[in-house]
Structure formats: structure tokens, C-alpha cells
Design goal:
The protein is an alpha/beta fold. It is built from eight helices and seven strands, in the order E-H-E-H-E-H-E-H-H-E-H-E-H-E-H.
Length: 241
């Protein structure tokens, strides 16, 4: 990728207590040696808190992301966690004093007040978070950019990592063919690269997936079912260098 826009890859291997997430590797392609070590651990939800404490006390990582979409229940098996409960649960992690850089909980709805309410329940927690993690989905490319800019307006003193981005996670209005997806990606990535406060981004998704049972409409996959690169990955590589 372009030096100014390094990618983000997350891992659960350092935090294993949560049985809701399948850590089995079903990829048809072996991962390059050392890739797992370069990934960033994530505290997916409150069931990971005890393991996160152990990690920070014994082997603090360079970065740690806190809570994945606490305002949304994925598939009805991930918990919704209020800002108040999140502040109570996460504060002990900050109190450990590890030299780790914390990435904020990445909310599902970027326009919500969840993070501001989290800050209201634990100002010192937000003070120790230097990076805002955001999930961005918009059928219109400039709609995605607007979401990022609004987050920056709320947190002008913090860096932003776009930890998920694509046109859609299943909106039937998204009907881009392969060329349309490449066009959306090109517009959005180039716009993001111009935003100096965005340090990293991660396209969703790297593996093969189909939205609305149609592989030819709004398909965000960077790899095919056999692990080979899609045309979209070629576009991505060209944009990020």
C-alpha cells in the first residue's frame, strides 16, 4: 500500500475468551509468515475484557482496538453494550498504564452520539484514546467521505483509522457491477488519502462474500473463493501502492 495509507489487519488470536467468533482459518491460501504478528488485537466485546487485562499486563501490544460495533448486534449473537457499561468495563484497561495506543470502540453508526456518551461516562478514558476507529458504509462515494469528515469534526484532535469501509453491507440500492465498484473505490480511496488526519484504512472485505445473493452486484470481495485476487484487489493495490 501507499506509505501514507498503510492497511489495518486485526486479529483475535491474542484474546481468545470469546466463543462467538470463529477463529478457524478456512482460507485456501496459506498466510505469509509473520502476518499474524503484524496484526492488531481487538477487544471485540465485554467477554474479552479479562483476557485483554492479561495481555496488557504481560505483553502489551503496540495498539489495541476496543469493542467492535457495541451499538449493533451482528447476527443477533454479538452483544449491544451501552456507553455507560462500556466505560465501566474498559476503564480498568486504561488504568493498567500499559504503553499501548488505544483505538476507540468502532460504532456501527458513525452519526450516533455513542462515543460522546462514552466520554461523558469516563472522560479520562477518552483522554487516553488517540485514535478513533470508524466503520464507513455509503452507496454514494462522497457520502462515505462526509461520514469521515463529520467524525473528525467531533474529534479534531485525534487521528482516524477507517477500520471498515465499502459501499454497502447489504443495501439493495447498491447495484454496482465490477467497474462500478472499482470506480467507487478509486474515488473514495483518493479522497481519503487527501485527509491528513486519516492514518489507516481497511477495506471490507478481503475474503469472498456475496451480498443479497448476487455475486455481480456490489460485491466487495478482494479475493475469489479459491483465494486468487479479484479485479477489485488489483484496483486497490494500484491505489495504495
Amino acid at each position: 500500500m501507499h506509505v501514507g495509507m498503510p492497511g489495518v489487519s486485526f486479529s483475535l488470536l491474542a484474546i481468545r475468551s470469546n466463543d462467538n467468533y470463529n477463529l478457524d482459518d478456512h482460507s485456501p491460501c496459506p498466510e505469509p509468515e509473520g502476518l499474524e504478528a503484524a496484526r492488531i488485537p481487538v477487544v471485540m466485546d465485554p467477554t474479552d475484557l479479562e483476557d485483554a487485562k492479561t495481555l496488557l499486563q504481560n505483553s502489551p501490544p503496540g495498539y489495541l482496538e476496543l469493542y467492535n460495533e457495541p451499538d449493533y448486534s451482528y447476527g443477533n449473537f454479538t452483544p449491544i453494550t451501552s456507553p455507560e457499561d462500556s466505560a465501566k468495563g474498559l476503564k480498568p484497561l486504561f488504568d493498567i498504564g500499559a504503553p499501548t495506543q488505544f483505538i476507540s470502540p468502532a460504532v456501527a453508526y458513525t452519526g450516533s452520539d455513542w462515543l460522546k456518551e462514552f466520554q461523558g461516562n469516563c472522560t479520562e478514558c477518552m483522554d487516553k484514546i488517540g485514535i478513533i476507529g470508524v466503520h464507513v458504509y455509503s452507496v454514494e462515494p462522497m457520502g462515505a467521505i462526509d461520514q469521515i469528515k463529520k467524525v473528525h469534526d467531533q474529534w479534531p484532535d485525534k487521528k482516524i483509522w477507517v477500520t471498515e469501509i465499502s459501499p454497502s453491507t447489504g443495501d439493495p440500492k447498491c447495484q454496482y457491477d465490477a467497474a462500478g465498484m472499482a470506480g467507487w473505490m478509486t474515488t473514495v480511496v483518493n479522497e481519503i488519502k487527501a485527509l491528513k488526519y486519516v492514518e489507516k484504512m481497511f477495506w471490507n472485505t478481503g475474503t469472498w462474500g456475496i451480498l443479497n445473493n448476487n455475486p455481480d452486484a456490489c460485491n466487495p470481495s478482494l479475493t475469489n473463493e479459491d483465494g486468487t485476487a479479484t479485479a477489485l484487489l488489483t484496483t486497490y493495490a494500484g491505489l495504495c501502492g
